[in-house]
Design goal:
255 residues, alpha/beta, elongated, Helix Hairpins, 8-stranded mixed β-sheet, single chain, Rossmann fold
Length: 255
């Protein structure tokens, strides 16, 4: 549901509750019946099941007409809010996605799917965000996904190796996919699955072991990075050229 539709739905339901309990209190006062019977009668009126049994006082009949009119209006308002959320489908924020996952994302195209929000995945997302690139994160961890939702990120909680999850993330209309999962075997399978779903994807992945690099390239990855190798080379070069390392943002040097 879109955020605006959720607010409208909550607002409508809150007004409906106020109408029922407020109407029940007034009905009890006017007609001289106990509060529970009044609540029961007003509930029937609001849901248009039936009206209270006659005889009613004049004031009681006026109250019933007012409650009925406002109740029907609020029920219609709530129905419209739900229908709008279903029809629009532009932004989704709900519990109960694939395999009970948390979902908050826009229906995108030409976006990048980042699979895995570990240390490397987090850094990848920060760069994409800095470059104003559209992206969606897929991660299994509910706490990470909840934090991402709170910060307004597009996220889908689920297993990136599941084709249904990738389709939910819009892989068929995506520009590219970056695999930062923990195991090489996972990233290999991820790249294979993504290639099957969209052969035109630009694919990149990390590798933990050097022997996985060639395999990742074979299954479709255009870019494969060994984080420890890249970091090791950068650290060694910085050490050998200490005076030039001032320009390296990712290296801390004692002054």
């Amino acid at each position: 549901m879109a955020d605006a539709n959720i607010k409208n739905l909550v607002f409508g339901m809150l007004l409906l509750v106020i109408l029922i309990f407020g109407g029940a209190y007034l009905f009890s006062f006017i007609e001289g019946v106990n509060l529970f019977d009044s609540l029961y009668s007003i509930f029937l009126v609001v849901t248009t099941v039936e009206s209270p049994e006659n005889p009613l006082t004049f004031n009681g009949r006026v109250l019933i007409m007012v409650v009925l009119a406002f109740g029907m209006g609020l029920m219609f308002y709530i129905a419209i809010s739900i229908a709008s959320a279903v029809i629009e489908g532009n932004t989704t924020l709900l519990l109960g996605g694939i395999k009970g996952g948390l979902v908050r994302m826009k229906k995108e195209k030409n976006h990048t799917i980042v699979c895995g929000y570990g240390k490397l995945g987090k850094y990848v997302c920060s760069i994409l965000k800095e470059k104003k690139q559209k992206y969606i994160v897929i991660d299994k961890d509910s706490d990470k996904c909840t934090n991402l939702v709170s910060s307004g990120e597009s996220v889908l909680q689920g297993d990136a190796l599941d084709p249904r999850v990738l389709k939910k993330a819009g892989v068929e209309k995506a520009r590219g996919l970056i695999g930062t999962l923990g195991e090489d075997s996972e990233n290999i399978y991820l790249i294979m699955t993504a290639t099957d779903l969209n052969p035109n994807l630009d694919l990149a992945a990390k590798a933990e072991e050097e022997h996985a690099v060639e395999r990742l390239h074979k299954v479709g990855a255009k870019i494969v990075v060994l984080p420890q190798v890249v970091g090791g080379k950068q650290l060694a070069n910085a050490f050998l050229e200490l005076e030039k390392s001032e320009d390296l943002e990712t290296i801390s040097k004692k002054k």
